[in-house]
Amino acid sequence: MPRVAKQLAACLILIALMLPSMVRSQETGDLDALRQKALELVNEERRERGLEPLTLGSALNEAAQEHAEDMLDRNYYAHVSPEGDTVRDRFIEAGGSRWQLAAENIARCEGCGGPPQISRVEELHQGWMNSPEHRENILREGLDRFGFGIVVGENQTLYAVQTFAGAGTSRDRQPQESVNAIDRQRQNELAAQRLNRARQNESASRIEPDPALIETAANLLPRQDLDSSRLGDLTQALPEDARNDWRNLAVLMASCSGCGTEPNAADVRSFLQQWLDDPQYRDRLLNRDFTDIGFLIRANGEGLKTAVLVLGQHR
Questions:
Q1: What dihedral angle (degrees, nearest 10) is formed by the CA atoms of 276, 279, 285, 286?
Q2: CB of 84 within 8 A of CB of 166?
Q3: CB 229 within 8 A of CB 133
Q4: In terms of CB atoms within 10 Å, which end of the chain has fewer, N or C?
Q5: Residue 168 contacts by C-beta under 8 Å, 6 or more apart in sequence?
Q6: 291-to-134, 197, 205, 287 alpha-carbon distances in Å
Q7: Are 311 and 285 in contact (CB under 8 A)?
Q8: What is the sign of the dihedral through the CA atoms of 280, 281, 284 and 285?
Q9: What is this structure's pTM?
Q10: Which CA distances in Å does 72 have to 29, 88, 109, 218?
Q11: Distances (CA, A) of 126 to 57, 120, 131, 134
């Protein structure tokens, strides 16, 4: 037994000695300094255009570096890995919020050997700024954090990755449109206006916001459980003194991520149009029996927004 143990130990030592020669040589340079320079260049572009500066995020740095090294190790060049993982998947895996917008720029340079230097980061940044799609990510609104990764292999090929994240902005927001938050009363006024335009085209009667249904929508969508995407009980959500007032009720719900931090007019328009574009929901919205609505959008401040619409037919 002792002899066998000695042979096993010798074998393990041999394997340990052999492993380093099997690992591909990679160089990253002074990552901290390179990341600071990459961030500085991005923020200079954003400040010139009146956009909020970004800060470095550990999850974004990790996601960027992991993707750069993975592309080098497995010899591919794409935003999506061979297994189908995206920048969003990598960001969440590194600890990022699943509700936030995540974006990515990548670059590859063949024959760019040696440890990456500041001058290389400057060249990469200029290349990204000269590309409309990459430039759009650098200057995107609704971002607040930034990450950077870079690596050079023994084959003299360099891979670099910029990653971005933030709560995003409202969908369907028009240029110069206000992003100011609107209260539930204004949300309902806008929702009724949008629905009534669609109903008029179908010769359906007008509907109006109803206080009891607005309160019902609020009860169905409690603030403390917004992330669960579960609605409360409709019967219990109705105000007690209004439970016998309705012949028919219907509820629609939708959520979006990376949609900004506060409900605004663009969100009302976006959610209503999403429902109107779906034949199943459109039939409910244009049903001539419904006379009243209650509508509410709530946000968790990280990019998640959830909307609830209650349709009612009075007795």
A1: 110
A2: no
A3: no
A4: N
A5: 100, 101, 142, 143, 257, 258, 259, 260, 303
A6: 48, 14, 8, 9
A7: yes
A8: negative
A9: 0.84
A10: 15, 20, 11, 50
A11: 22, 10, 9, 10
User: Of 61, 82, 59, 58, which is closest to residue 70 (Cα–Cα)?
Assistant: 82
Q: Which of 230, 215, 228, 227 has its CA nearest to residue 310? A: 215
Environment class of 286 (CB within 10 Å of its CB; exposed 0-12, middle 13-18, buried 19+): middle
**Residue carrying structure tokens 């109006």:** 208
- Residue where the block lists tokens 């009302």: 268
Print pLDDT tens along the chain (315 aa). Answer: 333 333 333 233 322 333 343 344 689 999 999 999 999 999 999 999 999 999 999 999 999 999 999 999 999 999 999 999 999 999 999 999 999 999 999 999 999 988 999 999 999 999 999 999 999 999 999 999 999 999 999 999 999 999 999 999 998 888 777 889 999 999 999 999 999 999 999 999 999 999 999 999 999 987 766 666 667 789 899 999 999 999 999 999 999 999 999 999 999 999 999 999 999 999 999 999 999 999 999 999 999 999 999 999 998
CA-to-CA dists, residue 138 to 20, 88, 146, 209, angstroms: 38, 17, 9, 41
3-state DSSP call for residue 8? helix
Closest by alpha carbon to 171, among 287, 312, 6, 305? Answer: 305
Structure tokens at 97: 């919020």
